[in-house]
């Protein structure tokens, strides 16, 4: 539990986590109005969400370690990369592009499979093309030195561009992240992009509970169809039988 000074938010979180929040006829919960980004169009609403979490991108140059304490969260990876590609362009400075060196096990097949290898994005591995700028936020994708705090999921600030080869450092931009990647961490400001609803047990609770207060949570719910007015409701996946078993231990 993160939100100690916001009793109303704590109560809402507990109901979300226990699956006790009231649902509508479609099994969806209603998100409190103060947390919602109004949906107008997909482009305008996304810009509103970005501005609510990152109102001044120039602060990454002035106080990057404070800026890394805020992020936009998504249930799935498919929207994360598009957001990060857009936001890296809003940071001042020159960019450096790192390209992975993917090789087929059989050298004779290298020419046939290199494009295919470059297109693969296995879970836990960096992308084929990584664009970085000084002071941009990154996240480690594997354990480097847990004793020094460099573990899978550690958020860092990229501080220097070097002409040397970047050797086996599994990094990814983290303006926007998946909900699961942020478990166990906390943020000053939390944005949520729900183009699709959460899909696993406790995922909505995990996302919301990263924030210290409900005032610092901003959620954009994209309606499934153009005429669907339900931008206040979303799914909350809770397996109550799992909670019951935990309480018996």
UniProtKB/TrEMBL annotation:
Cited InterPro entries: P-loop_NTPase (IPR027417), Pif1-like_2B_dom (IPR049163)
Limits of the DNA helicase Pif1-like 2B domain: 115-157
Protein name: DNA helicase Pif1-like 2B domain-containing protein
Taxonomic lineage of the native organism: Eukaryota, Viridiplantae, Streptophyta, Embryophyta, Tracheophyta
């Amino acid at each position: 539990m993160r939100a100690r000074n916001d009793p109303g938010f704590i109560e809402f979180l507990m109901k979300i986590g226990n699956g006790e929040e009231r649902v509508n006829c479609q099994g969806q919960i209603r998100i409190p109005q103060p947390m919602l980004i109004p949906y107008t169009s997909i482009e305008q609403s996304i810009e509103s969400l970005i501005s609510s979490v990152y109102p001044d991108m120039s602060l990454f140059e002035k106080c990057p370690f404070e800026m890394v304490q805020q992020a936009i969260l998504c249930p799935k990876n498919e929207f994360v990369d598009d957001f990060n590609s857009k936001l890296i362009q809003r940071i001042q400075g020159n960019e450096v592009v790192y390209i992975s060196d993917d090789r087929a096990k059989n050298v004779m097949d290298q020419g046939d499979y290199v494009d295919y290898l470059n297109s693969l994005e296995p879970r836990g591995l960096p992308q084929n093309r990584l664009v970085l700028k000084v002071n941009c936020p990154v996240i480690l994708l594997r354990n480097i030195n847990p004793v020094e705090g460099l573990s899978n999921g550690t958020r860092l600030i990229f501080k220097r561009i070097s002409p040397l080869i970047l050797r086996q450092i599994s990094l990814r931009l983290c303006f926007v992240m998946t909900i699961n990647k942020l478990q166990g961490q906390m943020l000053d400001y939390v944005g949520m992009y729900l183009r699709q609803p959460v899909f696993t047990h406790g995922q909505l609770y995990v996302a919301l509970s990263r924030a210290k207060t409900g005032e610092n949570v901003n959620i954009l719910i994209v309606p499934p169809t153009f005429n669907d007015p339900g931008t206040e409701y979303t799914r909350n996946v809770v397996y109550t039988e799992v909670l019951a078993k935990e309480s018996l231990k």
